[in-house]
Amino acid sequence: MLEFVAAGGLGVLVGAAELGSRYRDRPSALLGVASAWLYVLLNAAASAGCLWLVHVFDWKFGSTSPEQTAALQVLVAGLTALALFRSALFTVRIGDQEVGVGPNLILVVLLGVADRGVDRMRAKDRSQQVTRIMRGVQFTKARIALPAFCLALLQNLPDQEQQDLGVAVEALAGSEMTDTQKSYALGLLLINVVGPDVLQSAVTALDREIRRAPVPAAQLR
Fold first, then answer.
1. Which of 84-88, 96-100, 153-157 has the highest mean pLDDT?
2. CA distance 48 to 31
3. Measured between alpha carbons, how far is 76 from 52 in angstroms, rounded to an integer?
4. How far apart are CA 115 and CA 171, in angstroms?
5. Residue 137 forms beta bridges with which residues?
6. 136-153, pLDDT tens digit by residue?
7. Which residue did the predictor score with more confidence, 97 or 166?
8. Of 61, 75, 92, 189, whose CA is between 20 and 30 Å from 9?
9. What's the rounded Cα separation, in Å, for the pair 17 and 183?
């Protein structure tokens, strides 16, 4: 029984890590989404089921020691069950999109439901955060300095993510939105990468360099 608990625990960790990687700015938001819990529990059940199959077919993976065999069986079942459930038996073309049909269809549906649940719950919070942090920030002043400073604060951000952010900022700069709209959109892009706390620190540090010049009192009369 302990082996099944261990395999299920590994499945939970794998599922939670996958979901957490999709919401890096606030992984704790997943705790309030029922579909996220269902997704994680399904991963745990898949790992336990995979271990049952390993025992049924008596797969020892080349090990001769009973202790090593038990450990290998748990590791294989806990870490590879997700890959097994992501397999597709065949693909069906629906319109311009190819859809895999198989065990992966269940995970894809649940992952989509979890995504929508978290997005709906986080939308209001993210809107309030970005408007509070980026209020008064001028996009034309911040488009280069703010992303560069935020990225410099992080030490282990992959190069590909930095390049993707640069491409998104350039596309934003070429859009027809107002400066304020671009500023808020820039804030959302940065929150997705560095989180709200780092963005707040960066905006505070660059305050005078990236904010709009105050309107003279004479022009307000």
1. 153-157
2. 23
3. 12
4. 25
5. 211
6. 999 999 999 999 999 999
7. 166
8. 61
9. 31
